[in-house]
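Posting this for the archive.
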Amino acid sequence: MPLRSYCQGCQKEMPIRSNASTRVDLEQEKGLQFTVNCPECGKNNRVHVNQVFAKPNVTVILGGVALGAALTVGLMYYFGYLALVTFIIPLLVVNAQRQTAHVFNMHRL
């Protein structure tokens, strides 16, 4: 899940490079406040951990859609329309990504 914050200069989203899955992990990795350089305007921003928010990872979602579509098409020959059940995979992937981002965004330090 990509972590982001808003630039104080240009008000655009800027990425936070971290693999932290919770704010506590992010604080342990980077500290309570850390500096992030905005790729748009080049300003160094002092960011508090509570100013960081998470978004669902689009790459993982697209991978889930591709996997579900490939399994559905591949299994249609053997199982017929019963193979359409495998198209639930993208829904599960989307739900997991949304849930992970929601849990990160819900808890504050």
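The chain has three helices and five strands. The CA atoms of residues 50 and 109 lie 7 Å apart.
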